[in-house]
Amino acid sequence: MPIVSADGLTWTLRLKPGLHYAPPLDQVQIKAQDVIRALEREANPQASAGGYSFYFSVIQGFDDYAAGKADSISGLEAPDDTTLRIHLVHPAGDLGERLSLPAAAPIPPNPFDAGAIFGVATGHDDADGGFLVATGPYMLQGSQSLDFSTPPSQQRPASGFVPGRSIVLVRNPSWHASTDALRGAYVDRIEIATGGTREDAAAAVDAGRSDLVFDPGPPPQAPDEQIRAYQSDPSKGTISIEPRDFIRYVAMNLAAPPLDDIHVRKAMNLVLDKARLQEIRGGPTATEAIGHIALNSLENNLLLNYDPYATPGDAGSVDASRKEMSLSRYDGNHDGICDAPACSGLLALGLNTSPIFIAQAKEIRKEMAEIGIRLDLKLVPPDEAFAKLADPKNHIPLALTISWGKDYLNASNYFVPLFAGTSIGSGAAGNYTLVGATPEQLRSWGYQVTNVPGVDDRVDACLIQLGEAQLRCWADLDQYLMQDVVPWIPYQSDSHVQVIPGRIVRYSYDQFADLPALDQIALQPGT
Question: Is 385 within 8 Å of 351 (Cβ atoms)?
Answer without folding.
Answer: yes
